[in-house]
């Protein structure tokens, strides 16, 4: 990771790592693409013919995982291709090649950290309901900001099948709350004390209402543990839930494959820049 400092802040990038990866795979002269994954493609286990050399596929996906440290814009496609390490197919390899072609278009993009004049901790929570075409499990995505700077982000398949979008969103809220509590504890140990509640942003009104509703009913008892956990943090004044418009949901980039315009907008919001531009 290359660290560049100036009077405007700090920038983290992995330019050399990207260039070396493209050179190693013979993609240095490839034609760039605007998106890291085709929005119309849904990969499954049965897709295409098996690869002759699955070990090469596994090594390449493993190397791409290291890039997600400073390149959250490829976190979703990397998480998708990581699900087929056991029996990779040709279509899965083509998806990896598209990620490399996307990186070729902007190999020096990285995360920038600035002083925005506050220490507010906030998390954006989202879930792609039944997003996995293999087992129809939802995919939890979240990103956490400290002082307006991205410090944490994750994309993970949920352990059970959600029966509604509100349920999948609420499970995502519980995971995001855990991450917020961990960040809060870490900041406290480092001496950064802020008594204001951390903001938890979600684009699902039903999930937000369940967080503040003390009455359980038939539609929420199967996620009662998550409800109790999030509600307890709200009652303690540690978390405050807020609604965010779907168009302003920053966790979208961790949730699904998006068009070029949407990707560029979210990268800008996440603080991703090209310091050589």
TrEMBL record:
CDD domains: RNase_HI_RT_Ty1. This is RVT_2 domain-containing protein. Transmembrane segments: none annotated. InterPro entries: DNA/RNA_pol_sf. PANTHER family: GAG-POL-RELATED RETROTRANSPOSON, REVERSE TRANSCRIPTASE TY1_COPIA-TYPE DOMAIN-CONTAINING PROTEIN. It comes from Cephalotus follicularis (Albany pitcher plant).
